[in-house]
Design brief:
20% strand; ten-stranded mixed β-sheet; single chain; alpha/beta; Rossmann fold; 10 helices
């Protein structure tokens, strides 16, 4: 990884993203680009005033990163709607990683769809790291996710090449279905029959996951299986909590997942609800 792009609005949330990006840049030797946007849909006087203030903040941040952290850094002030500006700049510069702070959580409700973070993640074609937790050290425990498909394998390969967490422990999660339990005839199954069926399905999934792990090029990975007793996103978050993961890698799953990505299903909910960092690799990059 040679180029990290950090989107900032100078909030405390964005400061988390900057601190994590700084740790990663030190770890990998990557250069950093700070990007912020001033929305032009306001009176010109206000736009110009904010541009002056923003340039000062960017200049100070560049100086700190260069002089204190010894990181090669540049910055760009964009004048446009924030998510559109970030997406366009990411397409033009093709960073290896885009780092964002967590979306703004509101009292009584947690809105993700329609936020700058959601629109950005949905539209960029580079991996996006959403930094939810306060960075204190390098990642120590990473949860990979897979549906065992080719796009998933490619996404994990991209993650491995990024060298984000080479010294971390890695687990890989496959959430498997037990389709017969969803049929009308499932009501005729006894509890024992249902348990035996789930166990048989688990054993088959274990063999498939073992074969998949032999193709991803990451050694020492701990396999994890969970029956999809609840929604997949819930199972991912539950698994992350059980192993005390500090990073979830969402390996998207081709066309089917692209549709869900656009609709904001599994990916949206994990990004919305996770209290730890989430790396999302879009299908367009993984294919």
């Amino acid at each position: 990884m040679t180029h990290i792009m950090v989107a900032t609005d100078f909030s405390e949330r964005s400061d988390r993203a900057l601190r994590r990006a700084t740790l990663l840049a030190r770890q990998t030797g990557a250069r950093m680009t700070l990007v912020t946007a001033v929305d032009e849909d306001r009176p010109l006087r206000l736009v110009e005033e904010e541009k002056r203030e923003t340039e000062t903040l960017l200049r100070n941040m560049r100086a700190t990163l260069r002089d204190v952290d010894n990181i090669s850094c540049e910055s760009r002030l964009l004048v446009a709607e924030p998510s559109q500006a970030i997406v366009q700049f990411a397409e033009e510069t093709a960073p290896d990683l885009l780092v964002l702070g967590p979306h703004r959580r509101q009292l009584f409700r947690d809105i993700f769809v329609g936020t700058t973070a959601e629109r950005t993640i949905r539209n960029v074609t580079c991996p996006v790291l959403m930094v939810n937790a306060a960075p204190v050290a390098a990642y120590r425990n990473v949860l990979l996710t897979t549906d065992l498909g080719e796009a998933s394998r490619n996404a994990i390969t991209i993650y491995a090449k990024m060298v984000l967490a080479n010294d971390a422990s890695h687990s890989i999660l496959h959430v498997f279905d037990a389709p017969m339990l969803q049929l009308a005839t499932a009501s005729t199954m006894t509890e024992r029959e249902a348990k035996l069926y789930i166990e048989d399905t688990r054993q088959k999934a274990a063999g498939e996951l073992s074969s998949f792990m032999g193709t991803i090029g990451i050694g020492g990975v701990q396999p994890l299986l969970r029956h999809a007793a609840t929604a997949v996103n819930h199972e991912i978050l539950a698994a992350a909590a059980e192993i005390s993961a500090d990073l979830i890698v969402l390996a998207n799953q081709g066309k089917r997942t692209l549709e869900r990505w656009l609709l904001g299903s599994v990916t949206e909910t994990v990004l919305r609800d996770s209290t730890i960092d989430v790396l999302a690799i879009p299908p367009a990059r993984a294919d």
